[in-house]
Amino acid sequence: MSTKLSAAHRQIACQSRLFATLPPEMRDGLLDAAHVVHLLRGQVLFQHGDDAHDIHIVADGWMKLYRIAPNGAEAVVGVMTRGQSFGEPIALRRAAYPVSAEATTACELIAVPAQAFLEMLQTRPEAAISILSATFLHLQGLVEQIEQLKARSGAQRVAEFLLELCPEGAESATVVLPYDKGLIAGRLGMKPESLSRAFAKLRELGVRVNQSSAAIASVSRLQDLAQADAFGAMSKVI
């Protein structure tokens, strides 16, 4: 089901990496052509190999981007939430999606037709700066993700994940886990049993995890772990 954008949807879109640097008149024209897609939990937005026609911005909920390996294993490429966009370069090239996308919760997505963006680029080529900026930020995120997978221990990856959920400036916090532990493990490049061992290690730092939330006694101790040298200094933290 799709509907027109509300004022709240427009505000979310304007804060995304794709629209943040566009002049207001360009943003308004693109958002006039956009619509909101409503997905139920577990519903697929597109599959690997489908032709891309829209650029998507998450307005509410969580979206999983993933690929299925030849052996049948699922590799989580990314998990997107409110204000994050995906599919920009693929849709503008009219290429096929290299991943599949599935709603891990009930979701609202802002779908911007790639054709509207391409038509704007023909008359306002300076808008390409926004695409380049969004692509650079996406690439930077992928590099950081690779660094996390290569140079961080499982406990450090989980610590960084929990820190992203903590309110800014808080010394202690109870955070809601945004999706199930199986997806958390996939997002962090871990097996479920490795995630369980990492949570067990974090108990020594005062982190208590239940089915849907994590109570963090000391955010600063968690930060010390996340920032420690994965190959040496971590032993001084745990």
UniProtKB/TrEMBL annotation:
InterPro entries: cNMP-bd_dom, cNMP-bd_dom_sf, Env_Response_Regulators, HTH_CRP, RmlC-like_jellyroll, WH-like_DNA-bd_sf, WH_DNA-bd_sf. Residues 152-220 form the HTH crp-type domain. PROSITE patterns: CNMP_BINDING_3 (PS50042), HTH_CRP_2 (PS51063). The keyword Zinc does not apply. This is Crp/Fnr family transcriptional regulator. PANTHER family: CRP FAMILY TRANSCRIPTIONAL REGULATORY PROTEIN, HTH-TYPE TRANSCRIPTIONAL REGULATOR ARCR. It comes from the Bacteria. Gene3D superfamilies: Jelly Rolls, Winged helix-like DNA-binding domain superfamily/Winged helix DNA-binding domain. Pfam families: cNMP_binding, HTH_Crp_2. Residues 18-121 form the Cyclic nucleotide-binding domain. Transmembrane segments: none annotated. Keywords: DNA-binding, Transcription, Transcription regulation.
